[in-house]
Amino acid sequence: MRDFEFEAPTTLDAAVALLAEHNGSARPLAGGTDLIDHIRTERLTPDVVIDIKKIPELNILEHSADGFRVGAAVCCSRIWGDETIRQRYSALADAASIIGGTQIQNRASVGGNICNAGPAADSTPALIALGATCVIAGPNGKREVPVESFCVSKGKTVLEPGELLVEFKFPARPAHSGSHYRRFIPRNEMDIAVVGVGASVTLDGETISDAQVSLGAVAITPLLAKEVSDALIGKPANDETYKAAGEVARSSINPITDMRGTREFRIHVTGVLVERVLREAVHRANS
């Protein structure tokens, strides 16, 4: 493995200063489950690795009447182990519980997962479906970016040199709402999604009054599927509606063929998963 310097700041200001000082040659380490492997294979060659696990702002997990905040360095096992997240922000718990095995989940973070900017990242569709906002800190202060705009291409995010993802903010969940994330993989665990779907719905009686659907592994970045979301609003929460939404999803994507699946297979599976995810999200909204 290539040699690098190691820093472990205990304040956000110190971490931002270190990132700015090294101007692109430093990498933050949250869990390190991907970063260390990328350094070992020389996919990344940082001069400095900055451990951000000791910074309080990046380890926050806070519920309030206004919503929910989770730090970018909070590990996946802490997220899916939180009862309130499992009840109110179920899609996030779904995603966090399937990122790697138990040992990985005790280190890996949702912040690190999205900062990899992988098209098939499990956490990103869940974050999009739940309307999360990314809070970013840098030399010029803090700024906020909708999570669906955070990844701009494969392996690239909106983060500028010297900037750091600090936390995610989620709006409060309305009454009679539910969410779900599900993926298709060839094996039972520790595999990359061929397709991933996240959805959040709010019900007014038997009608879907609000919806947000997101798709992963079908484009260069995870998508907010606005056409699918719009097609659900005002419709009855039944199988006919879910099937129609699946068809809208199929017609709205243009995925690639790769070693994990053909374009045609991804299109087919996307529709199937949209139906299943919506059915479970509605079930949770009614529970």
Number of strands: 14
Domains (count): 3
CATH architectural name of the largest domain: 2-Layer Sandwich
Q: Low-confidence parts lasting 5 or more residues at pLDDT below 50? A: none
Mind describing the biggest β-sheet?
5 strands, antiparallel
**Overall body shape:** globular
- The CATH topology of the largest domain: Uridine Diphospho-n-acetylenolpyruvylglucosamine Reductase, domain 3
Order of helices and strands: EHEHEEEHHHHHHEEEEEEEEEHHH
Looking at this protein, list some descriptive labels.
four-stranded antiparallel β-sheet, Uridine Diphospho-n-acetylenolpyruvylglucosamine Reductase, domain 2, about 290 residues, 11 helices, alpha+beta, Enolase-like, domain 1, 3 domains, single chain
Walk me through what this model shows.
By secondary structure, this protein is an alpha+beta fold. It folds into three domains: 5-51, Uridine Diphospho-n-acetylenolpyruvylglucosamine Reductase, domain 2; 56-171, Uridine Diphospho-n-acetylenolpyruvylglucosamine Reductase, domain 3 (2-Layer Sandwich); 177-285, Enolase-like, domain 1. It is built from eleven helices and 14 strands. The longest helix is centred in the C-terminal third of the chain and has 23 residues, at 263-285. The mean pLDDT is 96.
